[in-house]
């Protein structure tokens, strides 16, 4: 049971009920990750807008984004997020569990194009040591035709995942 009060879909009213309906139409149910934000419907709405933005991102693939989330969450030991995103890669991208495990051991072995691996490594480096990023890192990505906007979006995704990991771990989200 999480340490923070959560509201079940059948008990939701007002804005929260509307957001839960939207989540149910997108995913089929309201998961514990959404319920954790239920005491602050505005934060849940913002989280859903964030997710929608990345679902439609023109250049950052679902596989790349899920890989970012897994590797950031691995650093924070957020089992809920690791399992959720592993399931996405296995069920939606048809990766094997072994491919996900290999990526977690060595991010360079991710089942992604070389160009996406470069962005993945950049995000992980920045999340672990932002001061370690330098002009050469940016030049490498630009030479691979990544725009500054894409680089910013990828890093923003990774840093937001770090924040989510902290929230999920602090409030003990249940891994169901």
Task: Write up this protein.
It is a single chain. The chain is globular, with a radius of gyration of 17 Å. 30% of the residues are buried. It has 2 domains: 9-55; 62-171, AhpD-like (Up-down Bundle), CATH 1.20.1290.10. It has helices at residues 14-27, 32-35, 41-55, 62-76, 79-92, 97-105, 114-128, 135-143, 148-171. It has 176 residues and is an all-alpha fold. The N and C termini lie close together (11 Å). It is built from 9 helices and no strands.
Number of helices: 9
Under CATH, the homologous superfamily of the largest domain reads: AhpD-like
Q: Estimate nothing, just give the exact number of structural domains.
A: 2
C-alpha termini separation: 11 Å
Q: Strand tally, please?
A: 0
Structural class: mainly alpha
Q: Radius of gyration, rounded?
A: 17 Å
What is the architecture of the largest domain at the second tier of CATH? Up-down Bundle
CATH fold-level topology of the largest domain: AhpD-like
Give me the strand/helix succession: HHHHHHHHH
Indicate the mean pLDDT: 96
Helical content band: 55-70%
Ranges where pLDDT stays below 50 over 5 or more residues in a row are none
Shape: globular
Strand portion, in percent?
under 5%
Task: Characterize the main sheet.
Answer: none
CATH class (first level) name of the largest domain: Mainly Alpha
List keywords for this structure.
176 residues; mainly alpha; AhpD-like; 2 domains; 68% helix
Sequence-ordered SSE layout with sheet pairings:
Elements: H1 14-27, H2 32-35, H3 41-55, H4 62-76, H5 79-92, H6 97-105, H7 114-128, H8 135-143, H9 148-171
Helix pairs in contact: 1-3, 4-5, 4-7, 4-9, 7-9
